[in-house]
Amino acid sequence: MLAYDDHIGVRDCMRRLFSFALALMTVTVAGRVLAQPSDYPARLVTIIAPSAPGGLYSLFARILGARLEQRFGRTFVVENRPGAASVLGAQLVARAAPDGYTLMIASGATMAVNVTLHKTLPYDPVADFVPVALIARIPEVLVVNAALPVGSLADLTAYAKGRTLTFASAGPGTAQHLEGEMLRQALGLDLLHVPYKGALPALNDVVGGHVDMMFTPIPNALSLIEARKVRAIGLGTRMPVEALPEVPALADVGVPGFEAAGWFMLVAPAATPQPIVARLHAELRAILAEPAMRQDFIRQGLIPVATPSPEELKAFVRDEIAYWRATLNRIGLAGIE
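Predicted structure:
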């Protein structure tokens, strides 16, 4: 048996060993944290696309992931996490480790619209994320079924008198839904919303004549417009769109002030180290400025941008939240989700 003094000696020895181990762990962890930004990325990076495969979230995730792989020499993988108009994916990333190894493609819906659209939101776009880079502006175009006797917004307004017209969307609360409601209120039209589980199924039913019209991102509709399977009536933004030079802005042909261009950005969890954010921002700014990248965006009907800094993007997100809060309250869609 151990004597009392022996017990004290053992306890003292164990306490010293524990303190040494704790100190060693602290130094090791601190060393990793300090070394992480300069070593970044040291392993695989995941880019979350908070939607089903095939949409613009996935498109941008694949494009940027491939280019970042080339520049960093590390693997960037795309992981689709669809659900609730990007809410589920955003919630996942908001709770991810802020180490630069989980990133997300976010839209205006993710970062601005959802704040007012939802009664409760399981993430805070301002507090839970740091913007890394603005990727592109996404103009939407109002298209109608080709068999409709409508060639302009004035024609559409006249044709709608005494009729209920239908408009499709990718689901309640999506950009297509909001823009349809904005048009309905601005022109006093009798429009019936027909939601779908995705933008492409909705557009297919406009082509097939099952629904009269819809707002859609230009990349989705460009080939159909060129093939005359749908007719473009007007753009949702006053920014020039080189892919559709003859299509007027709705704001210029009867809906003053109509502005609903979407946008996408890359974001990271809020506490991601600033050196990692700065490096990703610099790489993406260079990638997005490449002439070939810009021309490819233009060809698809997107609007390239020179991304502001992460700090400027934080202010941009706040402004977008305020804009959509006012808009959704005006058209009666605040808190519908």
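Summary: The longest helix spans residues 4-39.
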